[in-house]
Amino acid sequence: MKALLRSLACICVLFFLGSTHFVSAQSYPDKSIRLMVGYAPGGLTDGVARTLSPQLSEILSKQVVVENRGGGGSSIATDVVAKAQPDGYTLLMADQALISNPSLFPALPYDTFKDLQPVALVGTAASVIVVNSSVPVRDLKALIALAKSKPGTLNYASGGNGTMTHLAGELFKQVARVDIVHIPYKGTGPAVVDLLGGQVPMMFSSIGPVAQYIKSGQLIALAVTGENRSPALPNVPTLSELGLAQATVIGYWGVMAPAGMSNEITEKLAKAINEAVKRPDMNQRLVNLGIDPSFASGPRYEKILSAEIPKWSQVIKNANIRID
């Protein structure tokens, strides 16, 4: 009889916990949600988060608040999310750093795959190879010829060590077999300023920050790094078209959550993100930032991460990139 009572008690507890989980998932969200950004306000990833948050707030009927927690190449904010309760109230606006950080920072306080869970991909973006208009080249073939004729003398700017503007340049070096020199800046903005001023001749930049200068003729776009031509630069060929498909670079922006979040909450968030991305006003705002709206579910986003992390690990290893 005692054994029977114990069994019934266990069944009641399990039923209660299951019911609580069901009610929690059904009522989600019942308070505001934090969307963590691993950088100071004003950058591209912050812009994506602040474009997404009001849309999600409206769809979910609860405020989605962007919280900036800069430092460690976004690893500080990522760690906050990795260690949060998997209840859907602490999320990460992830970017390319999620892919490169495991190789740049071997002692990360979290495991990207064990401690984090992809919710949905929001958008992608190619980079563009640009030169100052004073550089005597007007196509990529001429740039490669110039670099090979003067090895170690042609510099390229980036937004900092380990950023995608840096890694894209290193991949290009390895594929095109050219010796160009990396000049890191403290952010894309200062790098573009010196590029315009002629202090540095070239850059692998996201499209948004340089589009207006390409249009004005101050910068010359030689190639985009995506698989397809960019709608923002339809006349600029891809690296693949120019015979350098292995140098293709695509950046990914998506929402991550702490591992262990319920399927119900994950699906509810993914559905809301999909609806937000499809909205014309958000769609256009992402395009204005240089982002191609590209929703993908959590499993598809996870496949992308699984393919991209080893790719960039090899690039980083080959270039012997270290973060001080």
Description:
It contains eleven helices and ten strands. The chain is α/β, with parallel strands linked by helices and 324 residues long. The longest helix is centred in the N-terminal third of the chain and has 26 residues, at 2-27.
What characteristics describe this protein?
324 residues; alpha/beta; 10-stranded mixed β-sheet; 11 helices; 46% helix; 21% strand; globular
Shape descriptor? globular
What's the total number of strands? 10
Helix tally equals 11
- Overall structural class, as computed from helix and strand content, comes to alpha/beta
Query: How many angstroms does the end-to-end distance come to?
Result: 66 Å
Average pLDDT value? 92
N to C succession of SSEs:
HEHEHEHEHEHEHEHEEHHEH
Largest sheet: 10 strands, mixed
Low-pLDDT windows of residues: 19-23
The value of Rg in angstroms is 22 Å
Report the portion of residues in β strands. Answer: 15-25%
What percent of the residues sit in helical stretches (DSSP H or I)? 40-55%
Summarize the structure.
The chain has 324 residues and is α/β, with parallel strands linked by helices. Helices cover 46% and strands 21% of the residues.
What's the layout of helices and strands?
Elements: H1 2-27, E1 33-37, H2 44-60, E2 64-68, H3 75-82, E3 90-94, H4 97-104, E4 116-132, H5 140-149, E5 154-158, H6 164-176, E6 180-184, H7 188-197, E7 202-206, H8 207-216, E8 219-224, E9 250-258, H9 263-278, H10 280-288, E10 292-297, H11 298-319
Parallel strand pairs: 1-2, 1-3, 5-6, 5-7
Antiparallel strand pairs: 3-9, 4-7, 4-8, 4-9, 4-10
Helix pairs in contact: 2-9, 4-11, 6-11
